[in-house]
Amino acid sequence: MAISDDTAAKVGNFDTSAIPDVKRAMAAVADASNSASVAQAAFAGSLQTMAFLLPDAATATYLYTVPEKMEIIDVVCIKDAAGAANTVQLKNGSGTAISDAIATAVDKTVTRAGTLDKATRVLAAAAQLQITNTRAAGSSACAVFVHYIRRA
């Protein structure tokens, strides 16, 4: 798709003539939108979030099949009720720890993983992710947000 000088100089009501290489950038976007492989590649490396609401229950491990290859880069927990010494831990499908045990004890407190193991934090598409919610006392209810980068 060719971009005329008039189009490159004005986008909507904005004068872009002072911005270098606008015409070339606009042409690249137009070309990319016509290519399925380029459009698909644009998603690799994008930041995504999975949210899990864990109920107040006895210690349990919840299984989730991941939809795509991913690298987990952060885990955030928000406690929904009071409890003492409760924890959440992420593990891969074979039960090997991805994160440390994340404290989830004080109501309304936000906590996050202190460590993520480089050897286990990348999961293949269709792999299982385990979330172990350990209740020591009080409520174990919490929200868990797993932030990841989509890998090709």
Could you provide a short overview of the structure?
The protein is an alpha+beta fold and 152 residues long.
Strand-helix topology:
Blueprint lengths: L4 H5 E2 L2 E2 L6 H12 L2 H6 L5 E8 L5 E6 L4 E10 L3 E2 L2 E6 L9 E2 L6 E3 L9 E2 L4 E7 L2 E2 L3 E9 L2
Antiparallel strand pairs: 1-2, 3-13, 4-11, 5-9, 5-10, 5-13, 6-12, 7-8, 7-11
Q: Describe the biggest sheet? A: 5 strands, antiparallel
Query: Number of helical runs?
Result: 3
What is the tally of beta strands?
Answer: 13
Shape: elongated
Annotated CATH architecture of the largest domain: Sandwich
Q: What top-tier CATH class of the largest domain fits best?
A: Mainly Beta
Helix content: 10-25%
Q: N-to-C terminal Cα separation, in Å?
A: 28 Å
- SS-derived structural category: alpha+beta
N-to-C order of helices and strands: HEEHHEEEEEEEEEEE
Taking pLDDT < 50 over at least 5 consecutive residues as the criterion, the unreliable ranges are: 1-16, 18-42
Task: Please describe what this structure looks like.
By secondary structure, the chain is an alpha+beta fold. The chain has two domains: 5-41, no CATH class; 47-150, Jelly Rolls. The protein is built from three helices and 13 strands, in the order αββααβββββββββββ. Strands 3, 5, 9, 10 and 13 form a five-stranded antiparallel β-sheet that branches. The protein has a four-stranded antiparallel β-sheet with strand order 4-11-7-8, with no helix packed on it. β1 and β2 (14-15) form a beta hairpin. The longest helix is centred in the first third of the chain and has 12 residues, at 22-33. The protein is elongated, with a radius of gyration of 22 Å. The chain starts with a helix and ends with a strand. Mean pLDDT is 82; it is low at 1-16 and 18-42.
